[in-house]
Design goal:
This protein is mainly β. About 15% of the residues lie in helices and about 50% in strands. The protein has a twelve-stranded antiparallel β-barrel with strand order 5-6-7-8-9-10-12-15-17-20-21-22. A four-stranded antiparallel sheet has the order 13-14-18-19. The N terminus is likely disordered.
Length: about 425
């Protein structure tokens, strides 16, 4: 069976995808969107008659020609009239969360590049973990007898750590998914529970812009993520578990393009996200290189609340809630090189590579209807594909034994898109 691909002219391959109305039960395997009429075609006359008062005659004729004409004569931009951008926005959430966890896993690992997490190594005034060890002094007469000065162990100082990363990303302008750009900041506070485990929390802000120009439609999203993570590392094996909840706001617009209609429909609605990430990996030293293979499983759920567009009269869309799920496996590895220093401080280059496979749908479908006539249909957003390659490189510079600076470049790529991301990180052990 051939794949049903994205539903936007600017998102598709080829560019001018077609959208066709079918009788119930029929399926379109040629176009990149599937539009299923919930009413028989002969009911169009009665419904359009009730909408005449709200829509000029020229616009109704254009709409009729779009909904009922043969596929060869359809408006090539008809798919965009049905808001494919909303389905595409759900898929961009999956890419953003995948990149967020990539930053998280890297930064928590880079904590090992700082000063020792053991209190006695980092702090001269910290007491020993062993309560049998005491501070002592010699008697003033020079005899060998030693007397304890302290009868109980000193309270260990709590070691807290933090890191902050700023990033920006964008794809290539001729990608079939349209233009996608994002930027944001992630801040984390965490602490060592013992010599193996560390526990932390993080907050993230993310801005996403997704647009297509044929015709113009755009989605701007502001998102806040709150999460926590637990990492264990015995020096050879490591485990990482993280989870996050997000809150989204979408502002959208799309041009209508029918003669005699308002030029633009606008939307403003909320949404939410939930995600979880689990990883197992090993550290294998090879000469002056640390090789770190890992395997991970990631789950993401994206929800857009129901909403109704404004500004386009009878051609406003009433959109039901858009729910989308992603289950991804990640197999990858990282190389950390211990080759040189700068001004006496170690500089560690790194290379990383991963293969990402999504077990869920590569495009998000949703149901909506025009407010003027009530005809309902299903629409699919852009096809983002199920398989991605993630590769990149970076530099980690230990400015002091408490401060680490890092910069990284990442490329998330497949047949549909090349998404480039640059990031800068500062990591501090308090």
């Amino acid at each position: 069976m051939r794949r049903i691909a994205p539903a936007a002219a600017g998102f598709s391959r080829p560019r001018h995808a077609r959208t066709q109305v079918h009788e119930p039960g029929e399926t379109n395997f040629q176009g990149r969107a599937v539009i299923k009429s919930k009413k028989p075609t002969k009911a169009l006359g009665r419904r359009l008659g009730r909408a005449t008062a709200a829509v000029p005659a020229a616009a109704l004729l254009a709409a009729i020609s779009c909904w009922t004409c043969p596929a060869q004569a359809q408006n090539p931009n008809a798919a965009e009239q049905r808001g494919t951008i909303y389905g595409s926005a759900a898929q961009t959430n999956f890419q953003n969360v995948t990149l967020m966890y990539n930053i998280l896993r890297r930064n928590v690992r880079n904590d090992e590049e700082l000063g020792s997490p053991f209190y006695a190594d980092d702090f001269a005034d910290a007491g020993s973990f062993n309560p049998d060890i005491r501070l002592v002094d010699y008697l003033p007469d020079g005899r060998t007898q030693i007397v304890p000065v302290q009868t109980t162990g000193m309270r260990s100082r709590r070691v807290w750590n933090s890191w902050v990363t700023g990033y920006g990303s964008g794809n290539e302008s001729d990608d079939p998914i349209g233009f996608y750009g994002a930027g944001g900041t992630i801040l984390s506070l965490y602490r060592d529970l013992n010599e193996v485990w560390k526990l932390g929390g993080f907050g993230a802000y993310n801005y996403v812009s997704l647009r297509d120009e044929q015709p113009a439609q755009r989605s701007q999203q502001n998102s806040v993520q709150l999460g926590s993570y637990l990492r264990g590392d015995d020096g050879t094996n490591h485990l990482l578990w993280a989870t996050a909840t997000g809150f989204d706001n979408y502002e959208t617009s799309r041009e209508i393009g029918f003669v005699g209609t308002p030029p633009r429909a606008s939307g403003d609605h909320g949404g939410s996200q939930f995600s979880s990430y689990f990883e197992y990996g090993r550290q294998i030293p090879i000469w002056r290189v640390d090789f770190e293979p890992y395997a991970a499983l990631q789950y993401i759920r994206s929800r857009q609340d129901p909403f109704t567009e404004t500004g386009a009269g009878a051609f406003n869309l009433q959109v039901g809630g858009i729910d989308a799920d992603s289950v991804r496996s990640i197999l990858g590895g990282r190389l950390l090189f211990d080759l040189f220093s700068w001004v006496g401080k170690p500089v560690r280059p790194e290379l990383h590579l991963a293969w990402i496979h999504d077990f869920q749908d590569e495009a998000t479908s949703f149901n909506s209807r025009f407010t003027g006539n009530g005809i309902g249909f299903a629409t699919s957003g852009a096809d983002f594909g199920r398989d991605w390659g993630l590769l990149g490189f970076g530099l980690n510079f230990a400015l002091t034994d408490r401060i680490l600076l890092a910069g990284h470049y990442d490329l998330l790529a497949n047949d549909w898109a090349f998404i480039h991301m640059g990031s800068a990180t500062m990591q501090v052990r308090w």
